[in-house]
Amino acid sequence: xxxxxxxxxxxxxxxxxxxxxxxxxxxxAVHTARDADEAFDIAVSTPIxxxxxxxxxxxxxxxxxxxxHIHKEPGKRDLPILLLTAHGMGIEQxxxxxxxxxxxxxxxxxxxxxxxxxxxxxxxPAAEPExxxxxxxxx
Amino acid sequence: MSTVLTSRPTTVPSDTxxxxxxxxxxxxxxxxxCFGRDGGLLWHDPQMPRLLALTTTSDPxxxxxxxxxxxxxxxxxPPPLILxxxxxxxxxxxxxxxxxxxxxxxxxxxxxxxxxxxxxxxxARGALDAQALLLQSARIPAVGALQLPxxxxxxxxxxxxxxxxxxxTHELASVTEQLSTIYEEINLLYKISSGMRFSxxxxxxxxxxxxxxxxxGNFRAVAVALVHREDExxxxxxxxxxxxxxxxxxEGQELINALHAPIHESLTLGEAQVHNDLSNASxxxxxxxxxxxxxxxxxxxxxxPLGVMLAIDKxxxxxxxxxxxxxxxxxxxxxxxxxxxxxxxxxxxxxFMGVLHALTRSIDAKDAYTRGHxxxxxxxxxxxxxxxxxxDEQCQRVYLSGLLHDIGKIGVPEAVLTKPGxxxxxxxxxxxxxxxxxxxxxxxxxxxxxxxxxxLYHHERWDSRGYPYQLAGEHIPLAGRIICVADSFDAMSSTxxxxxxxxxxxxxxxxxxxxxxQFDPALAKIFVTLDFTPYRRAVEEQLLGGHQSSAPGAEVRxx
Lengths: 139, 559
Hints:
The complex is a heterodimer of chains A (139) and B (559). Chain A is α/β, with parallel strands linked by helices. Chain A has helices at residues 13-25, 36-45, 63-72, 93-99, 111-122; strands spanning 5-9, 29-33, 50-54, 81-86, 103-107. In chain A, helix 1 packs across helix 5 and helix 2 packs parallel to helix 3. The chains are: A alpha/beta (139), B alpha+beta (559). The interface between A and B is medium-sized, with 12 and 14 residues.
């Protein structure tokens, strides 16, 4: 099975490192971006299988904006996008659906749970036997 | 070829760095090798031209030269060694923590190669044809002899930079791993504290916590055992294991007995006990059969022992570390907070119910014939509520309404309440006020608002001829209709000043007879099918004993 590639976007370096390492150790190829614009450039120029993005990445567009724009690109309409955001950001489910976000996780997050979610979204076999259940973004 | 010019314990073999460096300089005609302090060759570029490879690996002059180099080469800065006309080697020190640990050799062809005796000797050593070797070597790109020292210094600097960068990358990976573990911990603690509801059963909460802790810490089993609440004596006694997740061949009391000593110690000292090596413990044979190592963390609040948390074995068979201990201590203190609050909540509940019971008993006690009445009505109402499928919360509310339904009698003159004969109209009017008085008394207590309907409407009649508001049929709140039946049943079934107790069959027949008039017909039909054995037992007890034998605050339950 071909190696799946995941793009991780977050303005905080430590989150990029932790998520990247977790994914790399699990056998995924990872690209990182520090903001939505960089993420968009990577997404349209490189073949990727999934995006994990932060919500607020000042001063540029948000993760929701990124998702909306990516899904408008040809061939990228169904690209799974997972949103990581601070708890209680108050993003309505309607907004998430509109932007095509398949799943939102709140910070503080468990790296294991993120990996489990990635496996389930990409339908790759997970190393760990249990698939963790994840809290949806509230509101 | 042996590697290792590594300094600090790092998994980075520095020949990776050397290989990368060699690759960059090759095309410029600069070739690299690496020597130890003792002159031994540690590494050389595998793609080095044959001539230079031979030189590095087998030239005794070079080896001797390296061996005799002074440690502080940088200070002395000798000129490059000319091995034979046309090839030079320059050495720069490789330093770790200010000490020279080896030499980086930079080789280049600096001039025309001559087919002299030395050259032939070298070719022979390598079992090569000298002529062919000469031709091949002439094609090596030439480097200016004057430039070689500067180039060598540059190579040395690049090596240091690449080495630092490589170490930094690996350190970053290591730090990130640790950070990832810390994220898991934070996430766990966050989940625990945000998921804490003090009204939930301790069992459910502790199970969740143990399971999550076990997963994150990669422990084989995690258990929580609670201290008996009664034992305020000097030695806290740990009771049964409340929760055990994972696998352990010892369970429950066996586990506690086996780990009795460390548990006791951790509670007395208020500190965690870590036992990674059980081989020396004298009485540990029993324990050793079940586990290799364990940690016992006391759960304390304000110096008071509430219980212990035990972590048993790690799935990767490693020792418990300070990282594990930190996790367990953090989770343990969260559990202690929860347990303390859960028990305070329980205390509050007990106090509340205790007060209610005391209050209603005091009202019932005015008249010997009504003693225990409120309790029995409460129980019967709850039974009926459960039978018609109300939720646990609703049933509890009906129970409380039943308990408090006659509380308004406190506003009725005692003489009227206990009058043996027939009541006058005026006296009857006074009694009819008791539902409203009861509702008024409860009206000021925010938490009892939901209980009021049962109290206020328990004397309404299905045919609207009740009091105080003459409500009819389903306009009467359900709680009121339920208590109405239960209240009448108990009144008929007990001895009164004006008549003896009626037999059960008579009472049930009367209830059915009044279905649709006094009582909700559906409820009446269901009520008569209840099992009255516990009720009769309660009545008998009442007649015999007169007092409740259970501790204040406890409900008398139909057994």
